[in-house]
Amino acid sequence: MTAQTKALITAYYxxxxxxxxxxMESLLHDDFEHHVNEGGVRHGKQGFAAxxxxxxxxxxxxxxxxxxMVSDDGxxxxxxxxxxxxxxxxxxxxxxxxxxxxxxxxxxxFAIKNGQIAQVTTYYNLADWxxxxx
Length: 134
What we know:
Elements: H1 2-18, H2 21-26, E1 28-35, E2 41-43, H3 44-58, E3 59-70, E4 76-87, E5 101-113, E6 116-124, H4 126-133
Parallel strand pairs: 1-6
Antiparallel strand pairs: 1-2, 3-4, 4-5, 5-6
Organism: Paracoccus alkenifer
Protein name: SnoaL-like domain-containing protein
Pfam families: SnoaL_2 (PF12680)
C-alpha cells in the first residue's frame, strides 16, 4: 500500500508538471476535498477543475526538488517541493501581474481513500510570494 500511495502522489505531481489537469483530476476520489493555503475548502472534482482552470490562466508553475513521504499504512502522504513560477495574470486581491518570476518552498498533505486522493492540503508562505513578485 505504501508503494501504491507514493506512486499515486508522484503521478499527481507528474501530471501537474505536464499541465495535464485532466490526469490530476482522474486520480481524485469522488468525495475529494482541496484545502488551499489561506483560503477556503473546495469540495468535489468540479471545484478542483475550476481551481485548475483559474490557476492555468493566472500562473505558470513547475515543481522541482520533490520529496514524497508516505505513512506506514499508505492512508496518508506528504510532499515537499519548490514551486518555480511566473505570475501571468493579476489574481483578484493580489498585486498586479507583470510576468514576475518566483521560487517558493511549499508542501502538501494527502489523505488516500480506496486508492484515490481524497484530500490535498497545500501550504506555502504567501508573504514570501508577495515579496518576490512585488
